[in-house]
């Protein structure tokens, strides 16, 4: 039964609730269909749990920005609690552990605490490892999937642990496999089954694999943290782990800053920073190959602004309005995290006149904002004009929310934006990317998972004439 003045929604069945209304493999179309019937704020029962789905800019802003604290919780199901041990940052509930760690991570990632080597340098070093295989394949075709994935993974690895792995290294393969499998189970129907039926928890079912995978990653992270403890010089941090160990020293007995929390947080940052960035790059190059005139216009701007410089710096973005518009448009159309990460209300609250009790799961339909008519000049097509004004200057409409908005907004936004800019500009400056002649028509339909991924594709690499 829906509480009084709760947002409307489709009728629900006992036990299953509205799970029968959703295609678990890809519920995005169902969320859109239900929005058309019930409006921008509607409710669903996921099993016995009530959830509210929020769509379009106005409602999203009221919830996430204006009433940020009311909507900043995370739903706590038992699988997640058992998996995270109430530690980390992404899935922990609103409270002091989350707040202190979020603040610490933001400060550290913003280039302050990271020691002598700047974030930009770390990214540029990794870009050299992307360029090498591209250089070796001039005139040939290549699938960029692993290249981008390993690069994004190594960048975050360097920020956290100060190390990178060769693209063929077993450790990187194990890490990537653990993440993929954990996310698949934690996000899917098994999490709900685990939650609803305590008696089956000890059985050997797929979620057990999740706990094993989590242990594998945590053991790798613990080993790296132990090595840091031996080699660090207090007060002279080399990376995120060193900064955190300095913070533990500084805080003394404050239990929330602990080594266990550190290893859990490295997992979260690693998981959140890899797929998202690499899938954005993959979508980006797919669009740049399909719209060669847009690729060329980027290259003209790059050549003009970088003339006489050996490499691009993040500051250069201020002189590259077109490139900035293209990268933002890639993020808008790629819509990499379409349902954000589920939120939860922290107290009884109201949204656009509806009452929403404390503890209600909140699902952000970010797709609806990124494609909203009235917010964009060209909501349904790939067109950088969405981010340019009449004078050709870069503008960012408020409805640009691929990182979500408010208190839980993506913690890695600044790192992600730097990666996307430096990688895209460096590669476009040196190479021309061409859709292979024999590859048929490009298919833009993404594959749904925790993030949206373009279908695997190949690209032909050409060296640009001025290189
Ligand atoms: C293009 C790349 C990225 C996109 C599109 C993206 C998007 C998002 C979104 C939509 C959320 C959920 C926000 C919410 O719940 O309201 C999120 C959360 C988060 N992201 Fe990202 N992200 C990206 C890259 C990164 C990177 C590189 C890192 C790591 C440094 C990162 C770390 C996090 C963390 C830790 C959270 C949880 C924040 C919290 O709960 O307070 N993300 N991201």
From TrEMBL:
Location comes to: Membrane
Return the InterPro entries for the record. Cyt_P450 (IPR001128), Cyt_P450_CS (IPR017972), Cyt_P450_E_grp-I (IPR002401), Cyt_P450_sf (IPR036396), Cytochrome_P450_fam2 (IPR050182)
Fetch the Pfam families from UniProt.
p450 (PF00067)
- Protein family (similarity comment): Belongs to the cytochrome P450 family.
The alphabetized UniProt keywords are:
Heme, Iron, Membrane, Metal-binding, Monooxygenase, Oxidoreductase, Signal
Q: What Gene3D superfamilies does this protein's entry cite?
A: Cytochrome P450
Cofactor(s), by name: heme
This protein's source sits in the domain of life called Eukaryota
**Natural source organism:** Xiphophorus maculatus
Gene Ontology CC terms, in alphabetical order: cytoplasm; membrane
Chain residues that bind heme: 410
Entry's Gene Ontology BP terms:
organic acid metabolic process; xenobiotic metabolic process
Mind listing the GO molecular function terms for this protein?
heme binding; iron ion binding; oxidoreductase activity, acting on paired donors, with incorporation or reduction of molecular oxygen, reduced flavin or flavoprotein as one donor, and incorporation of one atom of oxygen
What is the protein named? Cytochrome P450, family 2, subfamily X, polypeptide 9
Q: Name the PANTHER family on file.
A: CYTOCHROME P450 2F2-RELATED (PTHR24300:SF327), CYTOCHROME P450 508A4-RELATED (PTHR24300)
Main localization is membrane
